[in-house]
Design the sequence.
């Protein structure tokens, strides 16, 4: 797909995702999770942020089970209660209760302060995306949550925490995403075929 406006890219990629057979997306998600499990960056990390899939996004549940088997919590995003448009990350375990936020996405119900981390305290965050390019620029759903949450990564070159890994299907790769000043680049992008 050639360079296009963000809204046209979102529309085209989401249509492709919606039209892809469910079994194909599930198989690709498993392959992506297996690639993630082999990354030394993840093997060394203690505090890993993930997400629950929404509308055909890569399903990270196999990765989450792997993290729990390593006796580590999985940190899932929760909508920030005071800073609109920002995320916090809450420690989650297999027995944790989840509830749907106002977007219909599961998030941890616990608000125990000791289990909630600001993004800078995470080692790695695996992020969803709608599209990406070879330069590891990410196009999200358009709400700006990840860009606002990880803004220090874009503004302060010395700020390297957390490391950001985007996950997507190979068909979500586009020629070029026009970078905006607020965009936060990724460290890696993992697809079912390769690691960028």
Sequence:
């Amino acid at each position: 797909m050639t360079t296009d406006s963000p809204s046209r890219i979102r529309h085209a990629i989401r249509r492709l995702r919606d039209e892809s057979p469910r079994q194909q997306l599930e198989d690709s998600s498993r392959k992506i999770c297996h690639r993630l499990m082999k990354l030394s960056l993840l093997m060394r990390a203690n505090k890993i942020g993930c997400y629950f899939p929404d509308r055909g996004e890569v399903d990270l549940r196999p990765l989450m089970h792997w993290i729990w088997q390593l006796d580590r919590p999985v940190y899932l995003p929760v909508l920030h209660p005071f800073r609109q448009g920002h995320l916090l990350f809450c420690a989650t375990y297999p027995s944790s209760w989840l509830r749907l936020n106002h977007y219909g996405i599961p998030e941890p119900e616990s608000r125990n302060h000791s289990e909630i981390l600001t993004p800078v305290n995470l080692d790695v965050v695996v992020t969803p995306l709608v599209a990406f390019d070879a330069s590891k620029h990410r196009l999200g759903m358009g709400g700006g949550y990840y860009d606002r949450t990880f803004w220090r990564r874009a503004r302060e070159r010395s700020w390297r925490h957390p490391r950001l890994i985007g996950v997507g299907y190979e068909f979500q790769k586009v020629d070029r995403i026009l970078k905006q000043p607020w965009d936060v680049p990724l460290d890696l992008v993992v697809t079912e075929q390769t690691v960028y």
